[in-house]
């Protein structure tokens, strides 16, 4: 008995064999994609196990649907109406979930590239200006930052990638400076600079493995303005600056100098006043 007589003229055994191969390959790819998506999403914090399962299943079902469509096309079926429905549904989902998908993709890039880590101190732009805070959480939608004044800020992942973000913790140390203005004779300037450097190194929180330095900013016959630069842990700049200011002022006061030590120097005047 010739089995080819049971098939329509447009369908051959070769097409049936190709259809079976397409369906088997599609099933295998769906299983592999579900495993891959599950492993990837489990690396991301902020995604519940239920959401991971749903996304993995949708990925697998999509691949199976595509393989079924290809198999039907090999048999000569008209799949244009099915493709039209799939395209319309896909466009609607993209438009509805555009923001969520952008943030999700950005979250994957942030965590895979290790741009930020939990505990890092970062500086980000906000409607109120630049904000410095510590990263509390990295999730699929946003980066959660706790500012220094106690505000919790949710920054969308897409904004993190598109805008400039300063990571103060990446290097492991951060450099800060204080300004010292004092009346000193040029004959005693070098020894005074050495005393200031020793006072900076003795302040609590200063990292002595990285050398501190004193720079001369301005000089006049009776006054000099210095900048003391030092290193500290990234999240301790406020407390360490305060300790350095107190240490340097105590050292200069013990030597009888009239001095001003500040961690936030203002804009210099066009004509410097005579007094400190």
Account of the protein in words:
It is rod-shaped and about 105 Å long. Helices cover 46% and strands 21% of the residues. The protein has helices spanning 13-42, 49-74, 80-96, 98-113, 157-162, 189-202, 237-254; strands at 121-126, 129-138, 142-147, 152-156, 166-167, 174-182, 213-219, 224-232, 259-262. The termini are far apart. Helix 1 packs antiparallel against helix 2 (49-74) and helix 6 packs across helix 7 (237-254). It has 276 residues and is an alpha+beta fold. The protein folds into three domains: 12-96, Helix Hairpins (Orthogonal Bundle); 115-167, Roll (SH3 type barrels); 174-262, 2-Layer Sandwich (Alpha-Beta Plaits).
Strand arrangement across the biggest beta sheet? 4-3-2-1-5
Binned, the helix content reads 40-55%
What's the mean pLDDT score?
Answer: 79
- Please count the helical segments: 7
Main beta sheet: 5 strands, antiparallel
Class by SSE composition:
alpha+beta
Give the overall shape, derived from the CA principal axes. Answer: rod-shaped
Instruction: Report the sheet-strand fraction.
Output: 15-25%
Organism: Brevibacterium siliguriense
Protein name: Mechanosensitive ion channel
Family: Belongs to the MscS (TC 1.A.23) family.
InterPro entries: LSM_dom_sf, MSC_TM_helix, MscS_archaea/bacteria_type, MscS_beta-dom_sf, MscS_channel_2nd, MscS_channel_TM-2
């Amino acid at each position: 008995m010739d089995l080819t007589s049971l098939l329509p003229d447009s369908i051959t055994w070769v097409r049936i064999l190709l259809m079976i191969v397409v369906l088997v390959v599609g099933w295998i790819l769906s299983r592999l994609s579900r495993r891959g998506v599950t492993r990837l999403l489990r690396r991301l914090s902020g995604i519940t196990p239920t959401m991971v399962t749903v996304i993995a299943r949708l990925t697998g079902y999509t691949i199976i649907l595509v393989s079924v469509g290809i198999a039907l096309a090999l048999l000569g079926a008209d799949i244009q109406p099915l493709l039209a429905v799939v395209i319309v549904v896909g466009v609607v989902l993209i438009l509805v979930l555009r923001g969520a998908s952008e943030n999700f993709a950005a979250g994957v890039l942030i965590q895979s590239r290790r741009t930020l880590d939990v505990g890092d101190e970062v500086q980000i732009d906000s409607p109120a200006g630049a904000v410095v805070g510590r990263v509390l959480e990295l999730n699929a939608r946003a980066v959660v930052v706790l500012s220094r004044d106690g505000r919790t800020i949710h920054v969308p992942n897409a904004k993190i990638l598109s805008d400039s973000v300063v990571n103060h913790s990446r290097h492991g140390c951060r450099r800060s400076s204080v300004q010292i203005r004092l009346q000193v004779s040029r004959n005693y300037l070098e020894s005074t600079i050495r005393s200031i450097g020793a006072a900076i190194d003795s302040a609590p929180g200063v990292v002595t493995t990285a050398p501190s330095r004193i720079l001369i900013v301005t000089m006049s016959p009776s006054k000099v303005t210095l900048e003391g630069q030092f290193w500290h842990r990234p999240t301790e700049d406020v407390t360490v600056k305060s300790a350095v200011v107190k240490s340097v002022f105590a050292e200069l006061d013990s030597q009888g100098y009239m001095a001003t030590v500040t961690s936030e120097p203002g804009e210099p005047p066009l004509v410097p006043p005579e007094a400190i």
